[in-house]
Amino acid sequence: MKAAVLKKPQDQFYIDDIETPKPTGHEILVRVRAAGMCHTDIHIWEGRFGPIRVEERGVRFPLVMGHEIAGEVAEIGDQVRGLQKGDSVVIYPWIGDGVCKKCLVGDENLCVRGTSPLGILRNGGYAEYVLVPHWRYAVKIGRAYLDKIAPAACGGITAYNAVRKASLEPGDHIMILGVGGLGHLAIQMARRIYGASVIAVDIREEALRLAEKLGAEYLINPSKAKIDEEVMKITGGLGVDAAIDFVGSATTFGDALRSLKRGGRLVIVGLMGEYATFTIPLLPMRGIEIRGAYVGGLRDLYDVAKLIEKQIISIETSTYLLEEINDVFDRFRKGLITGRAIITP
To answer: Domain 2-154+296-344 classified CATH 3.90.180.10?
Structure first.
């Protein structure tokens, strides 16, 4: 089968012919029709999660990346239940041990023994086929949604988990920092599920135009105005009820903290990997909560798939051939792609 292989960090992808896996037992082989490009892929390509080398997190090269995967079941092992050849599926990539308390309730992303994700610690979807270690990670979907639903496997469930952790109520003000592949989904979820008022923040004018189209009521470009000052104008000096930081830099962290009202919640998703300083006593004095959101659980993927199929939310995508991956990845790293880039092997 054809696959885009990264042989070492900061190298090009090589389109190689590698052996097609054969599923046994609970495994399934999926013919990949769409593989979303995620910011985590940039970290792997760079070789670092901020100050942490990817090898310290278990990444080994050569590697076939791509963990946002949708396609059709091509072959099944002899112990597979509920799936058959030809079924259209989106794959949950965050593989846990399957037996700990977190895994048993569908929160495999928080497996107590750690995860072994497709496209990160094992070969993923930038290939014609991918071997999925257990049939339970395959969520059946309608065939018509294959190219639109692949990003749900990471971007969708991450945004869903982050918005849920923001604990929103109707009429709350929420600030979304970073209107990329995740932020544009969080805007829709905050508006359409929770009835919140959204303030979108991004330095790219095209991203802010997308945010406005998706329902953001207020737009802030930090290159033109100070975030916290604009937020105070919008909220009558109170601040936002919640903020979700999809960037994760020291700057966005500080901007978000200064923009929260008393009792506000900050949800951090971005992995830019910098060090931040803040005045600790202000957290208890103002009743501020800081929460981390790491992707989402298997049960979240079922929820997000339904939201997409019912057209409650939509994912902005652009589609490219596997052979175009080097050019597409370069543009993606430079922030020149709005929404999600989809590779079609």
So the answer is: yes
Q: Which two tokens stand for residue 47?
A: 């070789």
φ, ψ dihedrals at 118, nearest 5°: -65, 140
Ranges for all domains in the chain classified under CATH 3.90.180.10: 2-154+296-344
**DSSP conformation letters of 225-252:** S-HHHHHHHHTTTS-EEEEEESS--HHH
E strands, the chain, are: 2-6, 13-17, 28-36, 48-49, 52-53, 68-76, 88-91, 129-132, 138-140, 173-177, 197-201, 218-220, 240-245, 260-268, 289-292, 317-321, 340-344
Q: Which two tokens stand for residue 293?
A: 């959101």
CATH superfamily placement of domain 158-292? NAD(P)-binding Rossmann-like Domain (3.40.50.720)
Going by C-alpha positions, the residue among 213, 133, 181 that lies closest to residue 318 is 181
DSSP state, 179?
A: -
Instruction: Determine how β-strand 52-53 pairs with β-strand 48-49.
Output: antiparallel
Report the predicted TM-score, pTM, of the whole model to 2 decimal places. 0.92
By the 8 A CB rule, do 127 and 32 touch? yes
Of the candidates 328, 304, 269, which has an alpha carbon nearest to the alpha carbon of residue 70?
A: 304
Residues of the chain with CATH 3.40.50.720: 158-292
Query: For position 273, what pLDDT does the model report?
Result: 65
Q: Which parts of the chain have pLDDT scores under 70?
A: 144, 273
Torsion of CA 124, 157, 339, 196, to 10 degrees: 180
